[in-house]
Amino acid sequence: MTDSKLNAEGWEVAPRAPHKIKPSVLLEVPKGSFLMGTSDDNIKQLQLKESDWAYEWSDNDLFVAEQPQHLVTLPAFEIAQYPVTNAEYYTFIWDLGHRIPRNWPGYTYPEGTDDHPVVGVSKLDVEAYIRWFNEKTELNYRLPTEAEWERAARGEDGRIFPWGNTFDPWRCNTVESDKKGTTPVGSYSPGGDSVCGAADMVGNVWEWTQSLFMPYPYRPNTNREEIKPNGRYVVRGGAWYYSRKLARCAVREGVLPNHLSPSMGFRLARSSS
User: In this predicted structure, what is the pLDDT of residue 106?
Assistant: First the structure.
C-alpha cells in the first residue's frame, strides 16, 4: 500500500489524508466560585420530575458519590468547545504510529464519522495524545480537572443539566434519543450547550478528567490530580448508550486509566495565562 505506515501494534495504517494539526477552539471560563455536587434540593427536584428512577437512587444511596454539594473556587481556565474527534485523533495515529481505538473497524475510523468524538481510548492513550499535541502546537493542553469540567458544564448556579433543571431528550444524545451510537460534535447546539458555550457536556460520550475518584468535598490543589497507575479516575457526562440518569452535570464515575469503552472520549483544557 503506497505511503502506508505501521502503528505500534505492527498493523498497516491506511493512507487516508490526515487533517492539519490545529489548536482546538477553547472557551474561557472566568475565575470564581460555583456549586459542585448534588444537593438535597436537587434530589427533591429529580424525584418530582424523574420519579421513575430518582426515588430508587435515593433509597439505595446512589447519590452519595455526588454529595455533599459544596462551594468550589477555581482560577480562570479554558476548555474545548467540543470533544476530540476521530479525524483529529487519526492525525495523531498517523504521525506517531500509536495504537488505534478499539472500535475502529480497520486502520482508520468508520467512513462518515470524521466529526464524531473519538471513543475506545484509555486515559493512557489520551495522555499520549496530549503530549504529542503539545509538542506539535507548543501549547500547554491537558485534561480538565473534574471541578473544571463540572464548572464548564453547569455554570455557577448548581443547575442539574447544562441547560437547566429539566431533562430534554432533544438537547443531548442518550439512550432516550435512540441514536444507537455517537453523533457529530455540536449536533445538539446551541440548545444543549452549557452557559459557557461548551457542547455535548452530557450525553454522547463519557469524558476523561485528570482527577482521581475521591470522596467530596473537592479541594483544589490537593493530591486529586496525581498520576497513579492503579488509581480510578473520574469520567463525566454520561453517554449515548446510557440513560438520562447519568446525563447530569454532577454525575461522576471512577474508572481505571487503562479502561477502554465505546462510550468514552475526552476534551482538552488549559490553564489561563
Answer: 83
